[in-house]
Specification:
Layout (H helix, E strand, L loop, with lengths): L1 E5 L3 H12 L3 E6 L5 H6 L1 H22 L11 H25 L3 E4 L2 E5 L2 E4 L5 E3 L2 E4 L3 E3 L13 E2 L13 E5 L3 H12 L3 E5 L11 H13 L3 E3 L2 E7 L4 E7 L2 E7 L1 E4 L3 E3 L30 E3 L10 H16 L12 E3 L4 E6 L2 H6 L5 E6 L4 H5 L6 E6 L5 E8 L2 H13 L20 H9 L12
Parallel strand pairs: 1-2, 1-7, 2-3, 7-18, 9-16, 10-11, 10-16, 11-12
Antiparallel strand pairs: 4-5, 5-6, 8-17, 13-14, 14-15, 19-20, 20-23, 21-22, 22-23
Helix pairs in contact: 1-7, 3-4, 3-5
Length: about 450
Amino acid sequence: MKIVVIGGGIGGYTAAIKAAQYKAEVVLIEKGKLGGTCLNRGCIPTKAFLHDAHIIDSVRTSKALGIFDSVPNHNVQAIIDRKDAVVSRLRDGIASLCKANKIELIEDEASFIDQNTLLLKNRGDKISADVFIIATGSMPHRLPMEGAQSEEVWTSDDCFDTPLLAGQHVCLIGGGVIGVELATFYKSIGCNVTIVEAQKRILPSIDKDASNQLATMLKKQSVTILTNAFVKEIIAKSPFQVICTVNDIEHKITADRIIQSVGRKAVFDELKPANAGVKTTKVISVNEAYQTNIPHIYAIGDVNGQSWLAHAAAAQGKVAVDHVFNPGRTLHPLLIPSVVYSDPQIASIGLDETIAKEQNMEFKVGKFLVSANGKHVVEGKERGFIKVITDKENKILGSTIFSHLASEMIPYLTQAILTNQTIESLEGVVFPHPTIIESLEDAMADVLGLAIHSFPKVR
């Protein structure tokens, strides 16, 4: 069987390697750089920046504790150079994995001629296959106004190669995950940061307690946050300006750089899926196996609009390939954790407390403040909590973790939900001490009012 994967991001190369493990003949087509948005312009560059920002913040904290006499100047270009080295190393690693799995890599732009054939734009060659997997990803949205279309106004794609210096003012339009992560980095390197968010709070899709606490911490670190703020005009020449209204009061924000972080949109027009009979709207519609309306054409990752997360794309890629070779296997919806790499991080899985209330569900909540955790105190961290949501029989339905290690802890809750665990069924799990994750034991016990390291609940 021959499988052609279109798009070499995390979803595409994961699907290609999975198909190769089934001994298929696999071709992976990528018009840009291997790794896609995640590796080249998204997840990895952002986390490289945030890692270095954490080092800078740690030095400042160490000075405040008297460990260092002074704080040395940081080198923003060195941060960019290290990011480039990290990205290059990982990209080479993907290429090596493809070679080891005997995957044919083609650097070209593909488009459908019909449902069985692709045209390679640069080569002029045609390529046919038994199965096609579309993994062409997404690109940043821009606001629908003249100034927002200017190349002088950045999106997240533009943030990783041009250094911004301490003292410069950055205005971030959008207080979602991308905006908050960029704000976390820029404030750490000494920029003045303003977030303009149209919703009532930043991170509107995240647990309200975590969102509000993070906003408080960012404000304490001199980040200006304007919520209920609607952008009316962007002046895309120096001095850059964002004109917005907040509760009907006009604000003019002058900045050295404007960055739009207002979501992403699926990319597939150049692929010409209509030539293959594939139905599309703003995304490519798929079923639970990630098949389009043409059974041998699949679409995974951002392009299908079900999730805009890199790990979701990879998981979907594996499901799609498994379905190709095991079409009768029972399919289960993917349970996808989300993470905001702020400081502290926010990770969540499953049911959200606000949604449960809106749907008038019967549920219980256990919550533990990690400020009472020994490892948290040793590491000099400030706020944080773990929240666990169960049904009335104490079956775990969801969780939010607000901690600098949230991304590393959330898989434990994901597994608990997938395996239908209850608070009681996990009581025998012994957590090592001192660790941050042992706070989870108290958060779960708090559902029953039995947390050891919390004051007794008033009955």
